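A.,

Following up on our hallway conversation. Structure tokens first:
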């Protein structure tokens, strides 16, 4: 995972890649792991940082989707539950079993949700994370001490998975490189190149850190750019119709005391008919989410006042300690790459092979994948690589990822220490914190973020900006945005020394981070 080496190799090579993947979110990284582990020569290019767009802004659930069960979409739920099971087995350091409680305030809710969630559990078969069961009123209060008790009749308990999205993305990048792939952040694909038959045969890449551009030649070019897939499709054919309609989801992070325990709360139907979660995460609680159609595609989407108020108001109806704006430690928005309705897809030019996510092959041979969810990234990758092999008539090699351990694999890590998220790298990270006396110091008063973690992130996880470190390596932005701003100048100075950057770079990094992080504060 050394960016400078990787970029040097890419700039100096004329070799033909089997797979060139555009986009370093869950989908693209999953494809890189799949293709490389089958033995294909693979390169992945990310315009910003890994998981910078949607993949670091999820609700952090590895789930079958109780919502889809309500909609009667059993096939989708079974597929996601199976994937939940694989992910729990292959990345136990980052994915854990989470108890969810639904409080019931009307007599019919307990039998209704008990039946539904028993089915949810049964559908997971041997991959169940724990059995659903009805709860008495007192049991509900024991699980969620903060729940509103007036008219509470009882509840239902069920299990799903909970994870750290950006950390998983980094670990997937590491897994891909261990399998022989080259993955680079800050490498933007600005155009596609084609052969004389009009087939896409390569990409033009801009180095967003050191400048300059270069061309890579490849057999299978995969567009895995999430909400941005249409911009890459238009590089292929300027007349392409839109495939994606973004929908914005907002989350608020508050102190753990609002729930009062380690269990999550799930509200199956809010006043606007949505599902709302309150999920413990890194000693905090994530509340959300909303779902509002938006028109703009951006790397840093912004929450609106209406969305924030809606979450606070809904959470306040179910929690005795009602969260207000002053309690919000972080507000973050993410854009879901919802596939546009089928009538927008041009059937004469593209071939659709899946309903849960969209996998399309353009006449030029460009393979585009979007939609789906984090939980199903592995299956999406398997489908994409299989499709590309078929389209390009490559020798078939079977998928390896159902049992492939993801970098950092460690069973039962000690989750009372935030640094559990490093999994099997934990000891190495701690060694970094002992390398110099300064590296053992806290980045901020009484925080457990250590300077040595910054060194680790730069050397081993390809962090190149203060935002990379604080947002997606340490998760400090999401845990407490204000505190993360207070850490920025220290992080910048540690990085500047490690990366041999000057004072100007350091100051610019702090300025840029402040601009980003301020939008995460109410
Ligand atoms: C609010 C919200 C909550 C969610 N919660 C959950 C959840 O709890 N569980 C779950 O399973 N799923 C959840 N999801 C869904 C999940 O987060 C997404 O399905 C997934 O992250 C999408 O990943 P992606 O790789 O397709 O897209 P992205 O993460 O957006 O990645 C695409 C990448 O492509 C890069 N890119 C774009 N153009 C170029 C270019 N020209 N050159 C190089 N790179 C480029 C972008 O910078 C970006 O990093 C949620 C989604 C939202 C919005």
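Then the amino acids I'd put at each of the 522 positions:
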């Amino acid at each position: 995972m050394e960016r400078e080496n990787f970029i040097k190799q890419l700039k100096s090579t004329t070799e033909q890649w089997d797979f060139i993947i555009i986009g370093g979110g869950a989908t693209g990284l999953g494809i890189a792991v799949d293709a490389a582990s089958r033995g294909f020569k693979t390169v992945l290019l990310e315009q910003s940082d890994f998981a910078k767009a949607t993949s670091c802004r999820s609700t952090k659930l590895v789930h079958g989707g109780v919502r889809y069960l309500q909609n009667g979409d059993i096939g989708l739920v079974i597929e996601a539950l199976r994937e939940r099971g694989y992910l729990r087995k292959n990345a136990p350091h980052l994915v854990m079993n989470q108890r969810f409680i639904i409080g019931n305030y009307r007599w019919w809710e307990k039998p209704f949700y008990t039946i539904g969630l028993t089915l949810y559990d049964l559908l997971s078969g041997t991959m169940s994370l724990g059995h659903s069961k009805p709860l008495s009123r007192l049991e509900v209060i024991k699980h969620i001490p903060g729940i509103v008790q007036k008219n509470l009749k009882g509840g239902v308990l069920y299990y799903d998975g909970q994870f750290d999205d950006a950390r998983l993305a980094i670990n997937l990048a590491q897994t891909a490189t261990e399998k022989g792939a080259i993955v680079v952040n800050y490498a933007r694909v600005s155009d596609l190149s084609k052969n004389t038959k009009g087939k896409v045969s390569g990409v033009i890449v801009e180095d967003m850190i050191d400048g300059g551009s270069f061309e890579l030649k490849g057999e299978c070019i995969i567009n895995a750019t999430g909400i941005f897939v249409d911009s890459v499709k238009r590089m292929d054919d300027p007349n392409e119709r839109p495939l994606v309609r973004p929908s914005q989801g907002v989350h608020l992070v508050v102190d753990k005391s609002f729930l009062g325990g380690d269990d999550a709360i799930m509200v199956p139907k809010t006043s606007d008919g949505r599902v709302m979660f309150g999920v413990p995460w890194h000693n905090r609680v994530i509340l959300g989410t909303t779902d509002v159609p938006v028109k703009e595609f951006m790397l840093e989407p912004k929450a609106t006042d209406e969305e924030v108020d809606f979450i606070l108001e809904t959470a306040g109806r179910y929690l005795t300690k009602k969260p207000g704006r002053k309690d919000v430690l972080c507000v973050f928005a993410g854009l879901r790459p919802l596939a546009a309705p089928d009538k927008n897809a041009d059937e004469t030019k593209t071939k659709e092979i899946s309903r849960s996510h969209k996998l399309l092959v353009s006449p030029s041979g460009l393979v585009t994948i979007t939609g789906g969810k984090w939980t199903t990234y592995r299956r999406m990758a398997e489908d994409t690589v299989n499709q590309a092999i078929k389209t390009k008539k490559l020798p078939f090699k079977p998928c390896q990822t159902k049992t492939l351990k993801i970098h950092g694999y460690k069973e039962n890590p000690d989750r009372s220490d935030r640094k559990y998220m490093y999994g099997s790298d934990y000891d190495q990270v701690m060694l970094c914190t002992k390398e110099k006396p300064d590296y053992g110091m806290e980045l901020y008063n009484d925080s457990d973020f250590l300077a040595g973690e910054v060194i680790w992130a730069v050397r081993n996880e390809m962090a190149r900006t203060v935002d990379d470190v604080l947002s997606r390596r340490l998760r400090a932005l999401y845990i407490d945005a204000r505190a993360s701003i207070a850490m920025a100048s220290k992080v910048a100075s540690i990085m500047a020394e490690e990366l041999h950057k000057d004072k100007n770079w350091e100051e610019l990094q702090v300025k840029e981070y402040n601009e980003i992080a301020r939008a995460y504060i109410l």
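Confidence is low (pLDDT under 50) at residues 344-355. Curious whether your intuition agrees with the design.

B.
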